[in-house]
Amino acid sequence: MLVKMPQLGESVTEGTIGRWLKRVGDKVDKYEPLVEVTTDKVNAEVPSPVAGEIRRIIGKEGDTLQVGDLVCEIATDEAEEEGGSVSDERAPDVSESKAAELVAAPEGARAGEFVRTSPYVRRLAKEAGVDLRQVVGSGSGGRVTRRDLEAHVTAGGASPRSAALPLADPSHPGAPSEPVKPPRPVQADLKPGVDDTLVPLTPMRRSIAEHMVRTKRESPHATAWFEVDVTGLRALREKIKDSFSQREGVPLTFLPFVIQAAVEALRSYPVLNSSFDAENMQIVLHRRIHMGVAVAVDEGLIVPVVKDADALSLTGLAHRLDDLISRARAGRLTLQDIQGGTFTVNNPGSYGSILSTPLINQPQAAILSMEKIVKRAQAVNDAIAIRSMMNLSLSFDHRVLDGAVANLFLARVKEVLEGLTPASPVL
User: Fold this and answer.
1) What whole-number distance in Å separates Cα of residue 259 and Cα of residue 248?
2) Would you call 398 a catalytic residue per the annotation?
3) For the whole model, what pTM was predicted?
4) Are 141 and 117 in contact (CB under 8 A)?
5) Is 342 found in the same domain as 233?
6) 148 in catalytic set
7) Which of 88, 242, 277, 402 is flagged as catalytic?
8) Could you give phi then psi for residue 133, rounded to 5 degrees?
9) Helix (H) or strand (E) holding 181
10) With contact defined as beta carbons under 8 Å apart, do 37 and 15 qualify?
């Protein structure tokens, strides 16, 4: 039986083979983990769909495969009994034969043939007037990547109108631009010295790097900052945190308070709880509020999702956050834990940051960062007072909303947080 790369989450089209848990010749039970697959959000174990023996490993460690690409071949007990009808099903050597077919066969013979690539590359090719069937794919199984497309254009393999289209800047389709040249790798001029250490990227680090480049390339970022007086909130938390921890068994941090305030602001300005559909040039407004929470782990950053955050009380949020953050740091998140986020809250303040410019978590429209709470002298009723102040940073996709709405959103978050006092009924 041929095992294929599963769907790893919403809008996720590929995954990187991180570590094989089985080797050729190993016995495997049904649902037993076969391999660790990495996306930019989580490491996931792919279970075996059948019981049998690993006959062949197709996806090597470090390979990035598209959803549906072949991962391995398992000889099942049923196949052995039937004379090998299932196990004899061999995977074609798509990495060579398919790529050669796409290039060598005449166009008429390939009419309607499906080219293996991502929706993003398809859109770039459409904007550039490039027939993807004429592009040589260097990815797994002959998959056409963005670099393949750019190299094809640079080599003169595009239509006349493609020279005026910016392949590397799809947020402005049709804008005049110089013909795109493949980016020059920084490493080309970098010669490590004898004292330098070369550190290969882990699959998670590589995925994060690709995701960050994508978000900066696709979303025109803008950032707004607000200053919030959280003196009342700080006094409220100080008053109830010990009894809360004893009663609930989880700590009470500032994060659930900020999430509640963000939920209230999203209700007032729902355009921030949305995604940008670049393929169809439309905004997708999400009815449900699924709050992503950025969590730092040893190898990078993971964003587990608090589903239906608007339906949870402060106590419910504290429990859900404690569970997700604990499992994220222990490497025990599931695919369901990181799917479906509609808005993200980041907490760099826990590391001492007082101001940041967060990057949007694609395909969401915005991300909110809460910074460190510090005591500062403030003018209160024409007098100088020492207050607990926190900066909020909101990065947003300028295709989806403008600065006015972003500032109104932050003003609402500020209003909710500054309205909290030791007398507030928050539980």
Assistant:
1) 19
2) yes
3) 0.65
4) no
5) yes
6) no
7) 402
8) -70, -15
9) none
10) yes
